């Protein structure tokens, strides 16, 4: 935005320092006048007689004599204070604003698109250094966000290209072979199209979670856990798995549909990425003094910490995930993380010593009365 030119902050501070110095000098002159000079006599005999009965000449000096000697000295002192205030104020203002100039330069560098620059201001903590540290932290978060968005866009383009390429290949094969069975082609096209639709819906859901554009209402996380496990129980039985649920009332504030998506994604992942038989999924909820916690654990293969650290990234899949009949689109945990962040929560993934994954979602605690009032 264009603005009219004005005085710099350094100039304003210099004038402020000078004004304070001059004010202090004038106050000293006023004090000298009020408490010293007014007790000296003048040359008017009548005034001397009225104010001071008896001898009034002190050391042969009168008030006018002192004023003639005091006024030039006071004027010289004030002039010196004026120069001192201007020069010293300019110097001090420059020293004080030097950190702000570094922050301004870093802002201009960041505005050009270079987010790797850091101020890294040295010295003890003060207001400017706190501002510089906060700015460095903001740049670090922006850099990570931009890199994540660029990587996400590249991965999304790759994932969307795959079903489109398969569709094109199937259509080309059908054109080159008119006698080919159309039912088989139709089934494969439907499968590929369904995957593309699932991927698009997952991308839209992830975008909605990242934007945080959703209504918030009291929600009991334990009820959502029960609903999700009941919905996915047939899938667990198909895989020969057992689901164990437990927990207390866990009130929080947020979107009921999005939080249900969180629980559903976690339980679904725990089912389809489990042991081939006799596996177990544990779903628990509990409330801490200031937060509510949803924990989903499952048996499964041993996972390395390096692999676990990447599972919540978009389109990152663990070993054997793509070959599952419910492989998904690679956005399940990424959606969980996005929704959790949008609800001011945290997502923690850890590998279990006995094999499998432990996922913990921690959200802010809401008063239980607000959630209980919404129960039927």
Overview of the structural elements:
This protein has helices at residues 9-35, 45-51, 63-111, 127-176, 182-211, 221-238, 256-272, 305-308, 332-342, 368-372, and strands at 217-220, 241-247, 251-254, 279-287, 291-298, 346-351, 357-364. A hairpin with a 3-residue loop joins strand 4 (279-287) and strand 5 (291-298). It is α+β, with helices and mostly antiparallel strands. It is elongated, with a radius of gyration of 38 Å. Helix 4 runs antiparallel to helix 5, helix 5 (182-211) runs parallel beside helix 9 (332-342) and helix 7 runs antiparallel to helix 9. The chain has a 5-stranded mixed beta sheet, covered by helices on one side. It has a two-stranded antiparallel sheet with strand order 1-3.
Neighbour order of strands in the largest sheet: 2-4-5-7-6
How many H/I helices? 10
The low-confidence parts are: 51-59, 319-327
Percent of residues in beta strands: 5-15%
Largest sheet, strands/sense/barrel: 5 strands, mixed
**Mean pLDDT over the full residue set:** 78
Q: How many angstroms separate the termini? A: 54 Å
Percent of residues in helical segments? 55-70%
Secondary-structure element sequence?
Answer: HHHHHEHEEHEEHHEEH
Shape: elongated
- Number of beta-strand segments: 7
Based on helices, strands and strand pairing, what is the structural class?
alpha+beta
Write down the Rg: 38 Å
Describe the structure concisely.
With 376 residues, this protein is of the alpha+beta class.
């Amino acid at each position: 935005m264009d603005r009219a030119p004005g005085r710099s902050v350094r100039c304003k501070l210099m004038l402020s320092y000078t004004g304070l110095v001059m004010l202090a000098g004038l106050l000293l002159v006023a004090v000298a006048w009020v408490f010293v000079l007014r007790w000296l006599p003048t040359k008017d005999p009548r005034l001397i007689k009225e104010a001071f009965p008896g001898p009034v000449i002190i050391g042969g000096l009168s008030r006018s004599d002192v004023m003639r000697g005091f006024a030039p000295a006071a004027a010289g002192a004030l002039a010196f204070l004026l120069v001192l205030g201007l020069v010293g104020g300019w110097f001090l203002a420059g020293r004080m604003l030097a950190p702000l100039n570094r922050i301004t330069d870093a802002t201009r560098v960041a505005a050009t698109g270079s987010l790797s620059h850091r101020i890294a201001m040295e010295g003890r903590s003060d207001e400017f250094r706190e501002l510089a540290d906060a700015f460095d932290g903001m740049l670090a978060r922006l850099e990570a966000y931009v890199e994540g968005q660029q990587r996400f866009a590249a991965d999304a383009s790759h994932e969307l290209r795959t079903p489109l390429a398969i569709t094109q290949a199937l259509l080309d094969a059908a054109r080159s072979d008119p006698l080919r069975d159309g039912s088989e082609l139709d089934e494969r096209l439907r499968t590929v199209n369904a995957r593309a639709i699932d991927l698009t819906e997952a991308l839209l859901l992830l975008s909605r979670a990242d934007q945080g554009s959703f209504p918030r209402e009291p929600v009991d996380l334990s009820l959502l856990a029960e609903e999700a496990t009941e919905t996915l129980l047939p899938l667990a039985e198909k895989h020969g798995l057992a689901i164990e649920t437990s927990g207390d009332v866990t009130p929080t504030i947020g979107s009921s549909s999005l939080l249900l998506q969180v629980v559903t994604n976690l339980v679904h992942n725990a089912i389809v990425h489990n042991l081939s038989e006799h596996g177990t999924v544990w779903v628990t909820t509990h409330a801490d003094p200031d937060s509510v916690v949803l924990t989903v654990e499952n048996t499964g293969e041993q996972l390395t910490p390096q692999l676990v650290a990447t599972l919540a990234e978009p389109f990152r899949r663990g070993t054997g995930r793509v070959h599952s009949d419910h492989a998904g689109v690679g956005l399940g945990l990424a959606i969980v993380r996005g929704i959790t962040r949008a609800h001011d929560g945290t997502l923690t993934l850890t590998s279990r010593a006995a094999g499998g994954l432990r996922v913990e979602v921690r959200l802010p605690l809401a008063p239980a009365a607000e959630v209980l009032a919404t129960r039927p």
